[in-house]
Write a structure and sequence with these properties.
Elements (H helix, E strand, L loop, with lengths): L1 H8 L7 H18 L5 H14 L4 E11 L2 E12 L3 E6 L6 H14 L3 E6 L6 E6 L1 H13 L1
Parallel strand pairs: 3-4
Antiparallel strand pairs: 1-2, 2-3, 4-5
Helix pairs in contact: 2-3
Length: 147
Amino acid sequence: MMSLIMKEIVNDKYRHSDLTGKIIGCAMKVHSTLGNGFQEVIYQRCLAIEMQKQGLGFARELEMTIHYEGIDVGTRRVDFLVADTIMVELKALTKLEDVHLAQALNYLEAYKLETGLLINFGSKSLEFKRVTNERKLAKQQIKKSDG
């Protein structure tokens, strides 16, 4: 059973799978220790401890500027930016809904990042979704073919 779970966590079809797998593993440890029912900030603090123990570099509550057509229109705090590569958005809800996934995708686009994780500690079992900014990937593919 555990190898099946690990296969889902570290999956080569996802970019940055090793890194996202480590983050998800840290989230699983936090969820198995605390269970559900706490506020998001408690999970955020515990996840920071676990990621630090795993040697993952991250910024927490990083304020990032949102641009619209090149104009600064405000800021949003991302829960975690891990290794300057992976955006991690945390929730503590009974169930993730499509609106939460859309929010995570919008953040990826706004922050010009390629990969993110949406992690929900509020359900009985930890929920996580990998999210990919397809526009960012397409731009990278174009640059590679031009190079």
